[in-house]
Amino acid sequence: MEAYIYNLVNLIAIYSILAVTLNFIMGYAGIYSLAHAVFFGLGAYTSSWVAQNVSPSIFVSYPAAMVAAGAVSLFLALPALRVRGEYFVAASLGLQVLSVTIYSEWKGFTGGIGGVLAIPPVDVLGWEVFRPGQFAILSVAVLVLVVLLTTALVRSSFGRNLRAIRDSESAAASFGKNVPMIKTISVVISAGLAALAGALYASYLSFINVESFTLDTSVLIMAIVIIGGTGTVAGPIVGAAILLILPSVISYFEFLPQTEIGSLQQIIYGLGMTLLMIFRPGGLVGRRPGR
Amino acid sequence: MSSTTPQLGEPLMQIRNLDKSFGGVKAVDNVTMDLRAGIVTTLVGPNGAGKTTFFNLITGNLARDGGEVTWLGRDIAGIKPHRIARAGVMRTYQDLRLFDGMTVWENVLNATEYGALPLPMSSSARAERRDRIERVLERTGLADKRDTRALDLAYAERKFLSMARIMATRARLWLLDEPASGLDPNSYERFLTILREDVAGGVTVCIIEHNLDIVIGISDRIAFLDRGKLLADGDPQSVLNDPELARIYFGDRE
């Protein structure tokens, strides 16, 4: 039971990092990306490769993952500078589909469909962290760091600039803001921090494959943000906790037909999200809309 | 930004033979004029005369087809809007374009924040900025609304927030697109007071305005645009008393 709880804490922390970093661009800059799982995956593959071939130290493999994701995110930033709203969603969808193909085919780096096996546990100052309980400390610590960093940024002039761009790009430019530069920086930061979730995921499970980094995951992360509350600090974490705990809650009720749990879960998600958007479009944590 | 203080009446922005067409229709047609230091120039003319297009051209929001625009002696062709803004030319929009999800305070504060990344600021600079914003909110009557989201303001308050944003900057040229339209008489007075004070403080203003009380109350010079052409450019009395212009303006053609 204890191991089960720790496992859940780890998964919630990892998905919270993904949701917090997506919320950073979605909730503040108004950049709706369906490619967030790409950076999750890139972080996982890069840290795995570095851990196996260079060093499993957290100070080597994790930063390498961030740098790789930050660099590749420039491909996403490029369309983000040119187009808005639904056009950008389409562009990010393209990047997501393209990346899954690359992850499936580039066997030397990703192990293809089979994935990467025997990823060494992460080394933190000489300690190999792999037990769920120990790892929970690490994953929660990384989550706290990500939340502190993004919150500090959002509350600074950088965050105000992001919100100004979201509300009126032309007015932001008219007040001297370099809109493409600010958007690019926000996308790079978001992707770089999302890669941390990937690195945690890889060193925690010691096995990864492309199935974890598909469009389904990107949609799940977006759902977590929307359900929790777009543009809030706590929303993405609340959303991640609810969406990851819900399956176990459902299977806890023994009178439910256990073979139908999967579809039951989908029905609850779908219904819950629809009702939420009707009655609380700001999400569970979000404030009610203005007039 | 240049540190020299120009003399009153010295041309800050020089516009020569400015042209812009949209699909064969000349929106701005060979316009030449100077915007001079400390002078309030009012652009008048019927709807569709090209006034807002003129603003969009000199702020870099639109690319011109021909002509030349210089700011403090420097050609600003092809310069991005945010660079022109940083050089001291700022504008308001007719449809306001407030940062709706942000509070009044944040709107005004953010208008002064140019850098992409947050830079450390000395506490005295921070205090100076806070005082400047306080003063702007008091003058625009928004001090009590500082924590209200722009979205939740009343119409006149939104107009004043649009003004407050530009007032908090250190812009030397303000381009105001119908800042007083739809205001009640009390708000007019407040608006005129603000404008007179800031012009006395060294700001140069070019304003698009329809309300004749405001036009007469504030203008040093009136430029009359119709169908993209500059028909008159001179002191308010001579332009307003021109019967031909009045006929165009009050629209009894056709």
From TrEMBL, chain A:
Transmembrane regions: 12-39, 59-80, 135-154, 185-207, 219-246, 267-286
Pfam families: BPD_transp_2
Bilayer disposition of the protein: Multi-pass membrane protein
UniProt entry keywords in alphabetical sequence: Cell membrane, Membrane, Transmembrane, Transmembrane helix
Protein name per the record: Branched-chain amino acid ABC transporter permease
Source organism per UniProt: Pseudooceanicola pacificus
Main localisation: membrane
InterPro entries, per database record: ABC_transp_permease, LivM-like
Example of a GO MF term: branched-chain amino acid transmembrane transporter activity
Location in the cell: Cell membrane
GO CC annotations, alphabetized: plasma membrane
Superkingdom, natural source: Bacteria
Automatic annotation (TrEMBL), chain B:
Pfam families (UniProt xref): ABC_tran
InterPro entries attached to this UniProt entry: AAA+_ATPase, ABC_AA/LPS_Transport, ABC_transporter-like_ATP-bd, P-loop_NTPase
GO cellular component: plasma membrane
Domain annotation ABC transporter: ranges: 13-252
PROSITE patterns xref list: ABC_TRANSPORTER_2 (PS50893)
SUPFAM superfamilies associated with the record: P-loop containing nucleoside triphosphate hydrolases
Sorted UniProt keywords: ATP-binding, Nucleotide-binding, Transport
Cross-referenced CDD domains: ABC_Mj1267_LivG_branched
GO MF annotation terms: ATP binding; ATP hydrolysis activity; L-isoleucine transmembrane transporter activity; L-phenylalanine transmembrane transporter activity; L-valine transmembrane transporter activity
GO BP terms: D-alanine transmembrane transport; L-alanine transport; L-isoleucine import across plasma membrane; L-valine import across plasma membrane
PANTHER family, sorted: AMINO ACID ABC TRANSPORTER ATP-BINDING PROTEIN, CONSERVED COMPONENT OF ABC TRANSPORTER FOR NATURAL AMINO ACIDS-RELATED
The name this protein goes by in its record: ATP-binding cassette domain-containing protein
